[in-house]
Amino acid sequence: MTIERIDTKQRMSRVVKHNGVIYLCGQVCTDSTQGITEQTQTMLMKVDALLEEAGSDREHILSATIYVKDMSYFGEMNAVWDSWVPQGHAPARACVTANMAREELLVEISVVAAEK
Description:
By secondary structure, the protein is α+β, with helices and mostly antiparallel strands. Helix content is 26%, strand content 33%. Strands 1-2-3-6-4-5 form a 6-stranded mixed sheet, covered by helices on one side. The chain is globular.
């Protein structure tokens, strides 16, 4: 059982692969000065890039946990999410409110996917 770690730092690895399963660390937006729509879009772009690097894609996502700063953002975040998830490939998902690591962050996601 080999464990592969990609972009490992002292505190975490951005990607961990084990037995055909890919675990992404929490992903946030690229520009936290933007609103919830843009933050969600760029966050999901980062997920796409990491999945590709790890040998997977959004059709192979098994589960996602989404953390939103406030549930008032739920509808706007879901509009982006719904257009991003491929038809017929919706993963198991949880969405909760959470205190963010930085005040300006509105959304974060953690993803588990299968390798292609």
